[in-house]
Structure formats: C-alpha cells, structure tokens
Amino acid sequence: MASLLRQRGVRLTSQDVTTGTPPMIGRCLTIPQWLDYVARYQFGQLTPSKVVLHHTWRPTVQQWRGLASMQGMQRYYANKGWASAPHIYVAPDGIWLFTPMKDIGIHAGPGNGSLKAGWYSIGVEMVGDYDRERPSGAVWEGTKAVLGGLSRRLNIPPATLLAFHRDYSKKSCPGWAVTKEWVLGEVNAWLNNAAPPPPPPPGPIGSIPPEIEELAEALLEQSYARRAEGYNSSWAFHQFAVENNLGFPMAKSQRLQHGGKTYAYQPFARDTLFCESPNWGDVQRLSQLLAGSIPPPGTLGRALLDATYATGGSPFRPDWAFHQYAVAGQTLGPPLEPSKKLVVDGVSYSYQVFATDTIFNRGTEWQNIQRLSALANTTNPAQAKVRDELLKATYAAAGQQYRPDWAFHQLARQWNLGAPLGKTDPITVGDKQYNFQVYATDTIYNIVPNWSDVKRLSAIFGPQQMLLAAPAPVARLLSPGAVFAPEWDAFHIQRFAVAGRAPSAYGSRSGSKIRLIVLHGDAGPALQSLETMAMPGSPRMPHYYVAAHGAIYQLIDDEFAAFHSGMAYWDGARRNINRSSIGVMLERPHTGYTDASQRALSWLIAHLRAKYNIPASGVVRWSDLSPDAAGDLADLPGNWYREG
C-alpha cells in the first residue's frame, strides 16, 4: 500500500486507520510525505511535549524486512499484552507509522507520560544497533526529518523536545555511540538548512557494556516469562519493578473495572503495581494504598487485593491470620497456592507459600506466625528439620524438587530469594551458555563451565550488590560438597534468546494434535540462523535447531505451531503441516553432517517421539512431503533418524 501511495503521490492525512492489537497504522512514508503529514497533523486533547529516541538493537538494518518486520513487532507487543506501542519506526526503506501520534504510546516507561500527568511523549525507534557506531544513511536522514519535523510542528526547540530512552532507564538506548551533543547539532543544522557542525567523538560504552546488557535483558525476559508475558523495559510496570527491586511478576498484567474506570495491574513478588488506563506512566503501588491495613469491600484497594490473591488460587480472607499477617507486613507479596498442612515428628504445622517467604505456625497457635527465612541459618536440629520440610513444600508449590546439596538452592536460602519460579535451565545468549534459576525476588546464574562463579541478576543493575556476586563470598556460604553442575543427560535442550525480542513466526495449533516430526536442513552458521529466525517478522522458524557441534536449541514452545513447513499432502489430504507437527532444523555445514549433530538429532527425536507417542513413520523430512523442497535433507544418510 505504501509503495502505491508513493507512486500516485497521494497525500496521507492524520486520520489514519489502525488495525490489529496494539493498533498499528502500518504506513511507510518518504521524507517529503512525512513532512507534509506532520505539518498537518491534528493532535488530541493533549499535545506531546517530548520525543524519546530509541534504537531497535534487534532487528538490525540488515534484518529489517519492511512491513513484515512491522507486523512482527506488532505481534511481539500483542504477545506481551501491550495496548499501545512506539509511534514511529525510522527504517532503511522509509518512515513507518505505528501508534497514532495523538495517542499515548508505550515505549519508555515513565517517559511515556500520561493524561493525568498532563504530558506525553512521541516514541521514535531507529532501526539498528548503535552501541558501537552511530546511525547513518537512510535511517539517520529519516530520523533527522522526524525530529526536525516534530520540532517545527510542536514549536519546541530540539534541546527541550529531545530525550533518550536511557534518560528513563538503565538501558543504553538509543545506543552508547549516540550522544545528545551530536543529535542536537545535526537536527539544528537540518532545521536551519545548514551544514552540520564537526561531529564529536561517538559516545563511550557506559556503565553496562552491551554484552552484559544483552545478558541482563535475556535473563529478565526468562525471569518475567516464568509467570507472566516476558520482560520489556519500555513497559512502565516492568521498569518500575526493576528500579524499585520488586522482584518478578507473579501473573500477567491484567485489567479490572472499578468506579467506572479501567485499571491495569500486575502482581510482583514484593508488591502489586497498578495505573489508571491509559495513564501508563503513572505507576502506583498497592502497598502504599493499603498502608498496612485491610481496606473495606467496595474500595479500589480491596478490589486490587482480592485480584492479587486470586492469581495464586487463594481467595483473600480478611479473617484469616495468615492473610492479616501478610497485609500488615507488606513484604510477602501474593500467595503461590492456598494454605496447607504438614506434619514433622508428629507435630502439625499450617503453612502458606507467598512469593517472598513461606509463613507457618504450629498447631493452632495462630498468634505465633513465623517466617521460613528466619530458619535459614539455624543450627538447632529440630528447627532445621522443620525448615527443610517447609523448603520441600515451597519448591513443590513451583513444581520443583528441593535439593539441599545444590549450590543454587543453598544460595537462594542464604540470600532469602523467596519461592522458586522454575527449575534450573540452560540458555544461550550470544555465543555463551549460562545456567540460571529464577526465584521470586532474583535470578541466580553462572556461565558454563565456570560453575562456582555464581552471580545475581540484580547485581547488574545495582552496584551496591556487586559483592553478593563475587566468587569468594559465595564459596563461604556453601556447605562442603555443594553441587554446582546440574545433572543433565549427555544431550539436553537449551533456550535460545535474543535480548528484548521474541520470535513471531508461529501461531495456534487450533486444536490439532502433534502427530509428526518434520526435519529441515540449514547451511548455518547456527548462531546467525538462530538470531535471524528469532526476530519479529522472520517468515519461518522451527521449534528446535540442532547445531553442527551437537547443541540443541529451542526457539518456541511445542504448544505453538511454528511456521517451519506449510501446506502439503499428508494422510490422504492437503493440510497445514505446521499445526500438527514439531519442526526440527539440522545444521549442515558445507563439509557435511557431523557425528555430533546426528547423535543429538537422534536423541531429540527419541525424546519427542516418547513425549507425543509418535510412530517411526511420523518422522519425515520436509522434502518427503513437499515437491518444492526436494533438496531439503535429501542427502541425509539412511533412515536412522526415523528410529530416534
């Protein structure tokens, strides 16, 4: 549509029609079209007073695919539960319109602004990675036109109008190489139709280097995805939670109606955050609203408290001692499950697992409620036995087994990290592999194979906590013989993550049962292919990728239909193979298949066949189903892969 409009010279008005969720205009403008568009634009009841500049980091300029990338970003935001998005993407092929500029977008946390605050900002995304080099070419020419055009339309000087995403967060965005001195010099020259001043040196790498920021974003994504929709620093709730050390979300962001108004809320480990829609940047804390007391029914505080407890499957009971204690203490967060009982040495205990701690009492001594964390370092044998039984129950609430000899579990107890939100998992970020485990208030990790160098995710964002991440204190906290390395099989599945992004090449299975394993080939190199497929807007992606060195990467959960195949005849009919299959891609370098990759593929096929009860005949190459893919794995030797 955009190219047709360009050819016909059609003037684009501010009355743009949006589609999808979050609402997206999806038009691409040339610089002259943009300048005409912004000059005539009619804002709503509130006029923006800031422009926040970003870089996408990923996709890069080379990965950009025009409308497909825009649609991929829309789907990425939709999967996060966003009701809005950035306003403008400046790409190598033009200036793309996303969120209408008259609406408040989601792109910079507290930098979004709000109706209540009386101001809001326009979010401008430069496509590319600008941590080590400045934007140039079409992206930079378009960016100058966007910033200059908005400065003219709003009658605000660039120095007053412009903000960077990193002004509102700990991110490097719009890239460490981009400085305000350089941007303002270039934009002012553009406005005055003059030559820009000599460029200052690119900005230096800041306090968090790009590779550490990438790791932090990837671990935050995994940590937030344990019980919610994943992490994004542009979302005010998430940024507020990181900056205020509230731990991780216990449920997805949700909405409730109260007093004729709509509120968004999200329970975190240490508090529930909420805001009135659409004042996304006006984040408030439930604990401050409650002030340690239980509000009466019919109030906003009670509605949020009831909703918070409901996320843990435990309705709030104002007459229950555990719930009275939790509200008065203001630090336990939401429950993870209803209260239960256990017996230790013939003594009955009631307990309830909350996000940051497990509380318990003996028998009917309801006025003597205790915290599990208080027993972390006890040397009393009877208390230690109660502690270990309660730890088993706490881990069981997350579907995990407590292992007192595991280093991660020992450190979580010593550091009072709260309830586990998942098991120890491997993850690949860039070219490095890490092990990590998510707890309610922090994630601990190490880099393979430096097992004993255990670090805390919070240390990346809080310099005052760096001592907690040092190897020496860790060693002193552990018991002799602590187990660092997880007990994995010779082959295991690890997540592949691109920080701050998620793949979009998947859909619903629409009720179809998994009946096939479809194999594909890829020339590699593995990490390059994985990153490309993990980008929003990529047209295809398998569930699993087996690299030449034998590593098995997972890109998307099996419950989704990855776009790895397409329509083909199978089982007597033409079908959408994606809906009923698991896609597996095998790296085939120019030197041929490797023994390591074939053994890994055999293990993965056996694992998937057992999991989904797939017969040997259900393991096929895509070339077996599609004549158009006759060469796909055609030279894979023998039929051994069908046996798994």
UniProtKB/TrEMBL annotation:
GO terms for molecular function: N-acetylmuramoyl-L-alanine amidase activity. Keywords: Cell wall biogenesis/degradation, Hydrolase. GO terms for biological process: cell wall organization; peptidoglycan catabolic process; peptidoglycan turnover. It holds the Pfam family Amidase_2. It comes from the Bacteria. Its EC number is 3.5.1.28. Residues 38-175, 502-638 form the N-acetylmuramoyl-L-alanine amidase domain. InterPro entries: Amidase/PGRP_sf (IPR036505), Amidase_domain (IPR002502), NAMLAA_amidase_2 (IPR051206). It catalyses: Hydrolyzes the link between N-acetylmuramoyl residues and L-amino acid residues in certain cell-wall glycopeptides. SMART domains: Ami_2 (SM00644). This is N-acetylmuramoyl-L-alanine amidase.
